[in-house]
Amino acid sequence: MCRHFAWLGAPRSLGELMLAPEHGLLVQSYRPRRQRNGRMNADGWGVGFYPLDSAEPARWRSNRPLWSDASFASVAPTISSTCVLGAVRSATAGMPMDETAAAPFQSGHWLLSHNGVIDRGLLGPHPAAESVCDSALLAAHVFDRGPEHVGKLVAELGTSDPAARLNLLLTDGHRLLGTRWNDTLSVLATDDGVLVASEPFDDDPAWVDVPDHHLVDVTGAGITITDLES
Ligand code: GLN
Predict the structure, then answer these.
(1) CA nearest ligand 1 atom 5, residue
(2) 103: Cβ below 6 Å to ligand 1?
(3) Does residue 88 contact residue 29 with C-beta atoms inside 8 Å?
């Protein structure tokens, strides 16, 4: 099970978001606090962000552990964005190990990350998948269905495959969508934006746990949390 997060709000640097927090993504790559499947996330990492003058996201992905990437650590404080989606990976057995299997996956303006596992047989092949990894295949199917329908698709797939874990994070740079389906997910509203993450970055009591089988929808207008099964 991997860990992921997304930020939507005032510009923040990748260093502030990913590397600096006490229990942020960097620490979650080797010492996650709430991870139930796998002990660390050393099989790669990735980040997508929207450059201030572009609607299309840029991505940086790697199949190495985040903690070993000294070049990223030096550049991350210099890149800022109003919308960032990052992930660290613990590969599921049998999945490819190259960087094309690391989230976030992309389709046009949209980015997607998946914490979990799904039976690839249930999804069927997809020509647009970036990798044969289950998460990349799932991303291609979500992009096809329309990212705004992700909640319905997750509920359908989760019902068909009870062993599936389907925590997804998606963004188009203006809206964040997050599903919690059989793993952990938390939200923090700050003065200048919203963080959605697999687990809290610190012990701030303002972090709110999203209930299982729910969808978080964040826009400039606020945060809504809805039941995926109703
Ligand atoms: N199944 C995905 C992979 O192999 C995600 C794994 C995870 O969430 N740990 O990359």
Answers:
(1) 116
(2) no
(3) yes
Is the backbone peptide bond immediately before 162 cis, with ω within 30 degrees of 0?
Answer: no
Average pLDDT value for residue range 84-110: 97
Determine how many CB atoms are found less than 10 A away from the CB of residue 88.
32
Residue in the block written with tokens 């903690």 = 67
Q: Which residues contact 111 (CB under 8 A, 6 or more apart)?
A: 48, 57, 59, 85, 104, 105, 170, 171, 172
pLDDT over 70 (residue 1): no
Q: Is the pTM of this model over 0.90?
A: yes
For the chain, domains (ranges, CATH) are 2-227 (3.60.20.10)
Largest Cα separation within the chain, whole Å, is 46
